[in-house]
Write a structure and sequence with these properties.
about 40% helix, mainly alpha, about 100 residues
Length: about 100
């Protein structure tokens, strides 16, 4: 609640199913789960930037050939690519978006 963007409001989510939390948040805030997905660092929320050759070298060899889109965090240095984790997360976001659309 003390964060400047919170404007005195905070929502505490109890332990439970992630899908249920997503449904609650989407209903409450009319979230677009796909609009800005995968554009910020998971560690520090910094906008991601295009990667250079040095960043590609940090991707595991098995994933390197498949990685078309590679981004990095200019703040902490983490490298992001669209591997199997991306595929799983994207499917989950699509599901949340579809459920939100059917509820509208």
């Amino acid at each position: 609640m003390e964060h400047k963007a919170a404007r005195g409001v905070a929502i505490l989510l109890q332990q439970g199913a992630l899908d249920a939390h997503a449904e609650f948040l989407a209903t409450r805030f009319e979230l677009d789960w796909l609009g800005q997905s995968f554009t910020r660092c998971l560690m520090d929320n910094t906008p991601l930037a295009e990667a250079c050759a040095a960043h590609y070298a940090r991707i595991p060899a098995a994933s390197r050939a498949l990685a078309q889109t590679v981004k990095h965090c200019p703040e902490c240095g983490r490298v992001y690519w669209r591997g199997s984790h991306f595929q799983r997360m994207h499917r989950r976001l699509v599901g949340w978006q579809e459920r939100r659309s059917t509820q509208s």
